[in-house]
Amino acid sequence: MFKRFLDLKLKQKIKYLFLFIIMSYMIIFFMVYAFVLKRNMVQYAFENNLNTMTAVGNNLETEFVTINNVSKLILTDSIINKYLDNGYKEGVRHAQEAKSALFDLMNTFNHINSIYVFNKEGGYINVSRNTVKLDSARIQEHQWYDEIVQAAGGYRIRLDGEGAFSGKEQVISFIRLMNDIETQQPKGMLIINVSKSIFTSTYKDMIGGNKSFGYAYGNKLFCGNLSIEQIGDLALEQKYYVQYKEGFIVNENVTGLYPIENMPITLIAVEKIGISKMISKEAGWIIGSILILTLIAMSMIGVFISIFITNPIEKLVATMKSFKQGKVQKVSLSVANDEIGDLKESYNGMIKEMNDLITQLINKEKFIQKAELEVLQEQIKPHFLYNTLDTIAYLALENDAIHVYQALETLGSFYRKFLSKGSREITIKGEIEIIKDYLSLQKLRYEEVFEDEYNIQDDLLDVKIPKLILQPLVENSLYHGLRPKGEKGLIKITVEKLEGQIHIKVYDSGIGIDVEQLHTIMNSKEHKSFGLKGTIERIRYYYSKEDVFKVRSEVGVFTEIEIIIPVI
Fold this sequence. Notes:
A hairpin with a 2-residue loop joins strand 8 and strand 9 (220-224). The chain has two domains: 1-279, PAS domain (Beta-Lactamase), CATH 3.30.450; 381-566, Heat Shock Protein 90. It has helices spanning 2-6, 10-76, 78-86, 92-108, 136-139, 142-149, 160-163, 197-200, 228-231, 281-320, 339-380, 382-397, 401-419, 428-446, 471-482, 515-522, 532-543; strands spanning 112-119, 124-128, 132-134, 155-159, 165-167, 172-179, 186-194, 211-217, 220-224, 242-248, 251-259, 265-274, 425-427, 450-456, 464-466, 489-498, 501-508, 549-554, 558-566. The strands form five sheets. It has a five-stranded antiparallel beta sheet, sandwiched between helices. Helices cover 51% and strands 22% of the residues. GO terms for molecular function: phosphorelay sensor kinase activity. It is found in: Membrane.
């Protein structure tokens, strides 16, 4: 998509750009407006949600206080206590009287669905508004009963009696032991099943607009006007009050989870914060007016750009198309002396510089190729190979098989590295290995003439440099520095990084070189790349830099050639 845009004509790009600017302007204006107001609205929604949920939670706690009071009335009712004390001994009479008392209490409180009173023998009486199925085996389970005993006279809240009750709708079971008033020993158990209406009544006056409520038992929603989509995968069971904000700008929800004290029940409230609450009609008119004015201004700018910019550029481009056909030539076009005119002049200047640069590159490439060829020719000349083979033959006559083998290995290694791959670049490590092989072969003939040392910075070993820039310098050190001196000397190679540049030094303790001799060598018209001058010229062309070397020397003492190249 982006590539297709880049390939469009300039006029089309400007049209799309204006369209993008207008759309961006609308979006940014809307987002800034919405963000400032929305932040305050979300904060208000958080505070309002907490106050609302606190009120609803208090309503529910009040309802359960009422249920608790009903349970206390049942605990102290003499008729019901007679039933618990006598059970089946007095026949059906006490049971019927107790059921009648329960029925009166149930009718007094609309939210009670059913009441069950169990005696110690496992018998029970109950009254109910709807058909409720009881699982007696669940009531008799030790774990179920032990939880009630652990309440120590208090009550426990369980959904459907933790599986003991089933019916058309789910109920919340209010469960507690019935203790003897005098001995405080358990003599029965009371279960008051409360319908969902007790929960919906707590928030019925607050429903409307964008607010929704619900109740969860544990981590499961069991009543309310909330949908599963509104809750998502939130962890509903909470120990403390928490709030979440979901959505973005246009449609955000503030969700609050309010755990009811001393109950395994959580109140859930979701409030939608829609865009209609943020932007008034007056604000909408203002935004629309600004957008229309912006559109008109953009259109006028577009016409101006088309007349004074894109049309002249199209004319200029039409005259430059010869460049696509390989004709690097200046263009001739009558334009005003503005930026378009400057563009034409700059293009013509660029064409001139390009032609000059092409000429320079061609000459540079010719020189580099010639220099590299001369380096290879110099080393492939027979005298070095013949001298080395003569020395190896002498070793063979001396029956020095080990040294013969080592010499042949070194010779093979030298030429493999020297001639392999044809690459113009080589790592410093590879260049040093070539030098080591070269000097190792020279030691076969001039063992008493020199020693070699290497001081290479480890982190520079993999840095690439032009191939074969050290071997000619080392050869000069041997043949023109050490041998004429007539005594054993030292060739030392140093590679280090100083001030962001690589410094390569070739030192020999030979006869040295005076200033006039160095000047003669560097200004000689004989343009051979083998030796100091050729190597320096190759490096200069390679790095497009003049200041690449230094020569330090003391006649009769030493010569040190330092190559300074950038890190690439």
